UniProtKB/TrEMBL annotation:
Subcellular location: Vacuole membrane
InterPro entries: Ccc1_fam (IPR008217)
Recorded GO MF terms: iron ion sequestering activity; iron ion transmembrane transporter activity; manganese ion transmembrane transporter activity
Gene Ontology CC annotation, any one: vacuolar membrane
Alphabetic keyword roster: Ion transport, Iron, Iron transport, Membrane, Transmembrane, Transmembrane helix, Transport, Vacuole
UniProt superkingdom: Eukaryota
Name of the featured protein: Vacuolar iron transporter
GO biological process, one term: intracellular manganese ion homeostasis
Length: 214
């Protein structure tokens, strides 16, 4: 596009740069946000469940730590396997497209090949993001409960800390992904509340039934 000045000379108009494609963030953003939320909610729910029947702070902390380690490993491995499967599918499709075009994979020009490879998912990146994010989320209830001996105060502080973290994680995910902030934050918050409440109530009911497991 061009414009004319007072001297009737054609002047080029600078085009606005393309807007950032937020869909490109989907891979690592999904892994990070889901990992953080899962770490936060699952660890807090485990600690709430144990807290429903055991008021000992040591039991809650050990449960939370075990949940952190097991969950982070599970998330990282699961994400690696999932993304690697996606990687294999995309590579196979690229090869089929090249063969249909009458060009062997080895004959693809370097520049085109590099561009195609940049668009492929990265299993290691997704696994690391998922495992690290899970650990960060799981640390919130652990730190909130670690230094409080009074049972009721400990439960209250942990619930408040987890609720705040849920709102923050939901807000971060919405901002980075250009999604509705309030709706996203409330969805994450309510989901966390439901998970913790159900775990606490069901564990309490099982303990109250005095079932003989031996």
């Amino acid at each position: 596009m061009a414009t004319t000045n007072n001297n009737n000379q054609i002047q080029p108009v600078k085009m606005e740069p393309d807007r950032f494609d937020y869909a490109k963030r989907a891979q690592w953003l999904r892994a990070a946000v889901l990992g953080a939320n899962d770490g936060l909610v699952s660890t807090a729910s485990l600690m709430m469940g144990v807290g429903a029947v055991r008021q000992d702070v040591k039991a809650m902390i050990l449960t939370g730590f075990a949940g952190l380690v097991a969950g982070a490993c599970s998330m990282a491995i699961g994400e690696f396997v999932s993304v690697y499967s996606q990687y294999d599918i995309q590579v196979a499709q690229m090869r089929r497209d090249q063969e249909r075009g009458g060009q062997a994979p080895a004959e693809v020009e370097g520049g085109d090949k590099d561009e195609e490879e940049e668009g492929l998912p990265n299993p290691m990146q997704a696994a690391a993001a998922s495992g690290l994010a899970f650990s960060v989320g799981a640390m919130v209830p652990l730190l909130a409960a670690s230094f409080i001996k009074a049972y009721k105060v400990r439960i209250g502080v942990m619930f408040a800390a987890v609720s705040l973290a849920l709102v923050v994680f939901g807000w971060i995910g919405a901002v980075l992904g250009r999604a509705p902030v309030v709706k996203s934050g409330m969805r994450v918050l309510v989901g966390g509340w439901v998970a913790m409440a159900l775990t606490f109530a069901l564990t309490k009911s099982v303990d109250s039934s005095r079932m003989d497991w031996v």
